[in-house]
Amino acid sequence: MPTDRTAQAVERQLAAMDCARYEIGVRHPSKGMLIREWAADQVRKAVAWLKRMNAQGQDIYIRPARSAAASLVLVDDLSAEKVRDLAAQGLAPALVTQTSAGNFQAWVRLSEEAQPPAVRTAVAKHLAQQLGGDPNSADHGHFGRLAGFTNRKPERVTNGRQPYVLVERADPGAVAERGRDLVQQALATISRAHAIEVRAAVKEAAAQAPAPARAWAQRSRELGTWYSGMWKGLRDRFGDDFDASRADWMCAVALIGKGYDVDSVADAIAKHSPNVEQRKGRDLDDYIVSTAGKAEIWCELRDKGAAYADVAEKLLPLAQQRQAERSAEHERQASARERDRGFDMER
């Protein structure tokens, strides 16, 4: 029987990508994309149908299924030189396909374990920027072309024929040497981005915080209502995808800046920061005092024109010193009151 070169190319691509499930895209030039989610065996069984669709003018695409975990990222629109650059940088692709003469797509496996979609998107954007790839293809859910089928773009026609998508190189199971480095960089980038978003959300919420009341009970009640509502807003907006301790810090800074005293802020964190007891355990008391105390010191220094980077390491020692001074003053006042009561009794 004649060899089915399309089936062979599909098999090589599936082996190199090695995903639990795939999404196959069949794009009609006017009707748009039809998407099917299949396991590898289902893709193999569908080759004949996909060939018919391709012959009728439809492009055939593939990507790791979004419903399943994966660690592949696509870098699109590369030259042969840029593909070699990937390998030279410790990012040898698990799969390289040639989609038309001189144009390549590379699938890079970042790690043996799956990575979150946000991490894969951040890495894809980084690689596209670094290598001059297509930035519009730089996200975790972008389709690459499936080998063995023709590229139906009119601008790719040569001598009246559409080029076949070819497997240039397939290395099943290959993990990029520097993949984990990119994952760590992506996590740091995502963390910074989330911090900026959370800070903006807290700042917005702080503008609606009530002014400090004179009576402690009223102040505590109003502040507690605001703190609980603000945290609900953060959860609704970000889910659990943010640093709760950093959010406490941002709230403390916002409230100190609003005019609340450090004891009121510490009380609000202790009573209304979700799961703070489980999060901090035995360190809870130190955490509350240091968070509110550092916020107090930072607001004072900020108002004097200090830059955070210049004073960040000093905040905790200064807050601890301030707390010790307050405790000493409270003890002195308590002793004075005790002496006054003793004088009154003698009289």
Molecular structure report:
The protein is of the alpha+beta class. It has two domains: 5-177, RepB DNA-primase, N-terminal domain (Alpha-Beta Plaits), CATH 3.30.70; 190-346. The chain is 56% helix and 14% strand. The protein has twelve helices and eight strands. The chain has a four-stranded antiparallel β-sheet with strand order 2-1-3-7. A hairpin with a 3-residue loop joins strand 1 (22-28) and strand 2. The termini are far apart.
Keywords:
347 residues, 12 helices, 56% helix, 2 domains, single chain, alpha+beta, Alpha-Beta Plaits, 4-stranded antiparallel sheet
| Beta strand count | 8
CATH fold type of the largest domain: Alpha-Beta Plaits
End-to-end Cα distance, whole Å, is 119 Å
Give me the strand/helix succession. Answer: HEEHHEEHEEHEEHHHHHHH
Shape: elongated
CATH class categorisation of the largest domain: Alpha Beta
Helix content: 55-70%
Number of domain modules: 2
Rg value: 30 Å
The fraction of residues in strands falls at 5-15%
Q: How would a textbook summarize the main sheet?
A: 4 strands, antiparallel
- Give the spatial strand order of the biggest sheet: 2-1-3-7
Number of helices: 12
Round the mean pLDDT to the nearest integer and report it. Answer: 88
Name the poorly predicted regions. Answer: none
CATH superfamily of the largest domain: RepB DNA-primase, N-terminal domain
